[in-house]
Design brief:
The chain is about 5% helix and about 45% strand. It has about 160 residues and is mainly β. Strands 3, 5, 6, 8, 11 and 13 form a six-stranded antiparallel sheet that branches. A hairpin with a 2-residue loop joins strand 1 and strand 2. The two termini are about 20 Å apart.
Length: about 160
Amino acid sequence: WRMRARGTTLLMTSASIGSARNRCGIHFKTVMFLRLPYSSISRNGASVAFLDTLNRFEGWKTILDAKEAWIQYNGVCFLKKSYKKLVIRAHSETGSTLQLILKGKDEPVISGIAIPRSTQWQTIEIPVKGIEPGVYDILVRLADDKPVALDWISYQ
C-alpha cells in the first residue's frame, strides 16, 4: 500500500491500495480527495494554482470561476459505510454554490453546497448519508458563475 499522510488524514486512491473491492472492510476515519492529483479538468473556468506562491510547500488550490466549470478525481475509494459529513475548505469573496457528483452505479449528486461569502479560507461541514463503500470518480462542479477556490474536500 502506498499512502501519503497530512496530519492525521490518509490520502488514498484505488491505485494506491490495490484492489479496493477486496479491501473495503478496512476502515479509515477520513477520505480526502482534493489534495490528490486530479484526473481531468474542464477547459473553461477551472484552474489549479499554488495556495501561496512564496511557499509552494503549502500545496495547491483549485479555482472554479465559470458556471459548470469542473474538476474530476478518479479512483477515490470509500472504505466504510458510516461517513457522516462532507468537509470543504474553501474561499469565495462572492459566495458560491458547488455540486459534487459521485460517479458510480447511481451517481448521487450532493447539490447546492453553499460556500458562504468570505475574505478568508473557511471550513464548511455538510451532513451526508448513504454513501456505499466502493471506488468512485468524483466530479466537483460550480453550479453558478460566482468564483470559488478549493483547498481540500474530505468525507469523515
